[in-house]
C-alpha cells in the first residue's frame, strides 16, 4: 500500500523543506518533492505539521511498566510505548546478568519477528565495579575470550558496552568489532589514553556521556575528551535534565556536531507513573519522573521517550536540524545503517513521525504502516 503525506514541514539531517510531500510505498520511501505530488492509495494532508524521520534509540531497557530483561512479551509491550512516541527502530538493551542468562536473552531477541528491532545491546557484564551505577555488581566480570565467544554465538549482539581498562578489555574490543558488533565504552574508570586506545581498537560509541565515568576535567579530559576528539565516535546523551546539566549538554553538542545521539536509556517506568519498579533484579524508585536505586540517589536509567528528549533539546536552544539529526541520522549511522535509516529520502525506510507545533507526536509510520497516534 502507498501513502502520500503532503503539506508538511519536512525536517531531517539534510535540512528543512516546507510544503514537502513524501510518498511511502510499502516499507520504503519511494519519492519526495515539493511540486505536484503523485497519486497514492491514501493521501494524508499534514496541514503544516512537522515531518521527521522515525527516531532511532540505541539504548532502551523498557517502558510502560515492562522491563526488557523479562523476555519477548515484555519487550513487545515496552517497545509499543516507545513507538507511540516516535521511536520506530530500537536496540533492546539488557543490564548486567550472569553470562548464561544473557545467552538466553540474546537468543530470544534474535528470534523476535520484528524488523523494527535492530538487535540487542549488552550493557554489561564487562563493566567497572566502581562505575556500576544501577547494575548489580555481583554480575560484573572482566571479558574473558570464552565469555565473549559465548555471547557472540548466542545471538550476536548488535552493540556491547564495556570498560576497556578491565583485564582483556582491549582484546574484547578487537574481537567484538571484528565480528561486526558496535562496541561502546561505558561504565568505566578509563582515562583519556585508555579510552583512545579502545577507539583505536574499534570502539565507536561512548555510552551515556558523563554518566558512570570520570568527568571532563581541564587536566584530565577522560573518556568524554577522547570521544569529542575522535571524529569517528558517536556520543550518547541522556537529555532528561537529571543525568547531564543543560549547560554541559549544550557544550557537548557544540563540541561534537552531528555526533551526539540522544538516547532514552529508559527503564520500565517510561510512559508510566511514579512508583516502584525493578531493573535487572534491582529495586528502583521513581519520583517526579526520576528513577534511582531504592534508598539511594544513584540514577537508574531514565523515564524518557525520545520525543521528550527532542523537545528538551529544542527548549535548550539546539537548532531544530541538529536536534532531529540527534534522534535520527546520527544513531542510525552509529550502527552502520545511515544509508537506509534516519532521512526523508527515496530508498530510505518508510519511518516517519508527524509532530504538532509544540513537537508532540501526532502520528507515526514505521516500515510504511501507521502504528500509533499520540497517546492520551
Automatic annotation (TrEMBL):
InterPro entries: Amidohydro-rel (IPR006680), GlcNAc_6-P_deAcase (IPR003764), Metal-dep_hydrolase_composite (IPR011059), Metal_Hydrolase (IPR032466). Zn(2+) binds at residues 123, 187, 208. GO terms for biological process: N-acetylglucosamine catabolic process. GO terms for molecular function: metal ion binding; N-acetylglucosamine-6-phosphate deacetylase activity. Binds 1 divalent metal cation per subunit. Substrate binds at residues 134, 211-212, 219, 243, 299-301. Residues 51-368 form the Amidohydrolase-related domain. It comes from the Bacteria. Keywords: Carbohydrate metabolism, Hydrolase, Metal-binding. This is N-acetylglucosamine-6-phosphate deacetylase. It comes from Petropleomorpha daqingensis.
Amino acid at each position: 500500500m502507498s501513502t502520500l503525506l503532503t503539506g508538511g514541514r519536512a525536517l531531517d539531517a539534510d535540512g528543512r523543506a516546507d510544503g514537502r510531500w513524501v510518498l511511502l510505498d510499502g516499507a520504503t520511501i519511494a519519492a519526495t518533492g515539493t511540486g505536484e505530488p503523485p497519486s497514492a492509495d491514501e493521501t494524508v494532508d499534514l496541514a503544516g505539521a512537522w515531518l521527521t524521520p522515525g527516531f532511532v534509540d540505541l539504548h532502551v531497557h523498557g517502558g510502560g511498566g515492562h522491563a526488557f530483561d523479562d523476555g519477548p512479551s515484555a519487550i513487545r509491550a515496552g517497545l509499543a510505548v516507545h513507538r507511540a512516541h516516535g521511536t520506530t527502530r530500537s536496540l533492546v538493551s539488557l543490564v548486567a546478568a550472569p553470562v548464561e542468562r544473557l545467552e538466553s536473552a540474546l537468543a530470544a531477541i534474535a528470534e523476535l519477528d520484528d524488523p523494527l528491532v535492530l538487535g540487542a545491546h549488552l550493557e554489561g557484564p564487562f563493566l567497572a565495579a566502581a562505575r556500576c551505577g544501577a547494575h548489580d555488581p555481583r554480575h560484573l566480570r572482566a571479558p574473558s575470550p570464552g565469555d565473549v565467544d559465548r555471547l557472540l554465538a548466542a545471538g550476536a549482539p548488535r552493540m556491547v558496552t564495556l570498560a576497556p581498562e578491565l583485564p582483556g578489555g582491549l582484546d574484547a574490543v578487537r574481537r567484538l568489532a571484528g565480528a561486526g558488533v558496535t562496541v561502546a565504552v561505558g561504565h568505566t574508570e578509563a582515562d583519556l589514553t585508555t579510552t583512545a586506545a579502545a577507539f583505536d581498537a574499534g570502539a565507536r560509541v561512548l555510552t551515556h556521556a558523563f554518566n558512570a565515568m570520570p568527568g571532563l576535567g581541564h587536566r584530565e579530559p577522560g573518556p568524554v575528551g577522547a570521544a569529542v576528539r575522535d571524529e569517528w565516535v558517536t556520543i550518547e546523551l541522556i537529555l532528561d535534565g537529571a543525568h547531564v546539566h543543560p549547560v554541559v549538554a549544550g557544550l557537548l553538542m557544540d563540541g561534537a556536531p552531528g555526533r551526539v545521539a540522544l538516547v532514552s536509556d529508559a527503564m520500565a517506568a517510561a510512559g508510566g507513573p511514579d512508583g516502584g519498579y525493578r531493573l535487572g533484579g534491582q529495586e528502583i524508585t521513581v519520583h517526579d519522573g526520576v528513577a534511582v536505586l531504592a534508598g539511594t540517589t544513584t540514577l537508574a536509567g531514565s523515564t524518557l521517550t525520545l520525543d521528550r528528549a527532542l523537545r528538551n533539546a529544542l527548549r535548550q536552544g539546539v537548532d531544530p536540524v541538529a536536534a532531529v539529526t540527534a534522534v535520527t541520522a546520527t544513531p542510525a549511522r552509529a550502527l552502520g545503517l545511515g544509508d537506509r535509516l534516519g532521512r526523508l529520502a527515496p530508498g530510505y525506510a518508510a519511518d516517519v513521525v508527524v509532530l504538532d507545533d509544540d513537537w508532540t507526536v501526532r502520528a507515526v509510520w514505521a516500515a510504511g504502516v501507521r502504528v500509533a497516534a499520540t497517546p492520551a
